[in-house]
Design brief:
The chain has 25 helices and five strands. The radius of gyration is 24 Å and the shape is globular. The chain is mainly α. A five-stranded parallel beta sheet has the order 2-3-1-4-5, with helices on both faces.
Amino acid sequence: MLSDIQIQKKIEILSNKLNLGNFDEVISETSTLIKKNKHQVLFNILSLAYQSKGELKNSEKIMDEALKLNPKNPYFLNNMGITQHQLGNFILAEEYFNRGLKIVPNYINILNNIGNLKKDLDQTNEALNYYKKSLSINPKTTQTLHNISICYQSLGKFDEAKNHLNVLLSIDPKFTTADRLISSMTKYKEGNNHLNEMINKSTQLKLNDFQLANLYFALGKAYEDLKQYKESFDKYSKGNYLLKKISSFNVKDEQKIFKKIKKIFSNNFEELKLVNSRKLIFIVGMPRSSTSLIEQILSSHKKVYGGGELNFLKKIIDNEFLINDNNELYSSSNNIKNIFQKIHDDYIKKISQINDSYEVFIDKAPLNFKYIGFIKKIFPNSKIINCKRNSLDICWSNFKNFFGESLPFTNDISDLANYYKIYEDLINFWEEKLPNQIYQMNYEKLIDDTKNEIEKLLNFCELDWDPNCMKHEQNTKTIKTASASQARQPVNKAGLRTSEPYKNYLNELSKMLDN
């Protein structure tokens, strides 16, 4: 039996390993320790390690065990709430958070987490209320300041977002995510104070790779505004280099997945006769191909609700089809039909927690292009819109925008070009398998002939003309992507030929794309 001092020492070591990302080690060692000592921190550490690995069912299981031992432990309730949120069980997540708040009403972590939940449910005003309550308890909580700024940015309230970010930086200058967010909402001119602060910070502060990467992307944007394109490209490249260093991405893994998808659909499934229980529109394409703009236009329609970028479909389809090899599974039409029905019901249940009206629901996760065939089998009456834009502009826009760990193929020119090629190849495959069922929305055509292109888009979606779609910049819907600023502007030519000023630095990319 370990003494209290020994267990505290073990907890300290495990916490450090958790912060360093050694999740497998943490899981192995904590699982062994917990059998001998039911210390509450061990349960939380193990739950966090599972969450970090995406093993949410294991996190749920360990928190369930913990709550049986102590059902009123606010730390357990908070971690279970986080797990249920990540699983897409939003109602259940809120129940756990509220149980925790009843016990400790001023628990800042729960206030933040329930705010994040409300933000994801597009209940933005409620999210702000939770963040504001957190700040009233401790106005120097950096994570709350970050969360509330994201919320204001998604609403287009850029001044309020920047005010909170400046307060955050006054507390912690190394929180360079704030610098990057400020840069995305700022039009820089010579002598800008924030630019000078970032330049000084890059040389005078000791920053880790992630902090420095955020700063380099922020500086890249600032130099781009100043038309100092060589310096801008250098900073974007340095930021991407640092993100690439901490990524395990290999484009060959993606090629295998795309090949597997094709194999699954090499023989058409029999007609499954599933019926949509709700009208759905899926907006797909490469990231930065105008998916946010198209959602803003369509969600301005009186009969349409924009759900934003959702990861529900990816998680469900990956788990059912792509993670494990099960050829027998695909050989039986009954098996397939049952799986597709399960996916249909699970997806509808999850989106109904966001919006349960009769409105047409938009899911605009760009990378759902991988699942177009699945979508048309599971939701046969759904509408698929693939957003197209000049390939060099798309790839350049991906390279210069910060996506953290979510889109690792964007951190390397060669990876970007190869990923774009397999995207294009898969779209061609889907068009061959599903003729006339994918609407190709061309960004350049939309800019040149906006009204006519919107009319054609609405016709494809079987929606009546709504003049609000021509005034999408007035749409108050939250935008939670890198396009938060651009998608709130009227349709304009600013997004055309954005790679042109950098053409001297993009020769390799241009050749690989055959531009």
